[in-house]
Amino acid sequence: MANELIIKNGFISKENSQIEGGLTSTGDSNFSGLIKNTGFVNVSSASANTENVSVMKVSGTGGVENWQLADGIDGQRLTLYCNTFPGGRITITPVSSSGWAAFEITSAGDCIELIYDSTAGWVITGNRNGVIS
Questions:
Q1: What's the CA gap between 42 and 86, in Å, rounded?
Q2: Which of 18, 39, 57, 60 can pair with 83 through a Cys bridge, CB separation 3.0 to 4.6 Å?
């Protein structure tokens, strides 16, 4: 069947399946941390709040900026990308991270992919043109 969605002793999704409206679960279901808002948020301030966000569009003011990236929840994936950049530099420092201390954006298109682990913090899964230190 095209666009088939089956929820029975597990979850199978084919094609462009989606759930619209409410989702009711009975029994021992636990969706905590698994269903997140997949929209994006525009960020242009010194604090990058990750709550209910999977994509952050970053834009600078043209000067030197230092931002702090808040912790996420286990399994949360986050993409930070620069959509407009008037110059300067944006340095994003995570509260918790594994193997890196900061990500520096210096031009439009710079992008970093992350996944959060409550033990390891933000872990880098991909990078495009940004400077990682």
A1: 15
A2: 57
Q: How much is the pLDDT for 121?
A: 96
Range 27-34, long-range pairs (CB < 8 A, 24+ positions):
33/73, 33/74, 33/75, 33/76, 34/75
Using alpha carbons, select from 104, 122, 99 the residue that is nearest to residue 50.
122
Reference 38, options 18, 64, 10, 65; nearest CA is: 18
Residues 104, 93: Cα–Cα separation, whole Å? 9
Say which residues have a Cβ less than 8 Å from residue 33's Cβ, sequence separation at least 6.
73, 74, 75, 76
- In angstroms, how far is CA 63 from the centroid of its own chain? 24
Tokens of 125: 């899964």
Mean per-residue pLDDT, 35-52: 59
Query: Which pTM does this prediction carry?
Result: 0.67
Tokens representing 37 are 């808002």
98 within 8 A of 75, measured Cβ to Cβ: no
Query: Is 48 in contact with 69 (CB distance < 8 Å)?
Result: yes
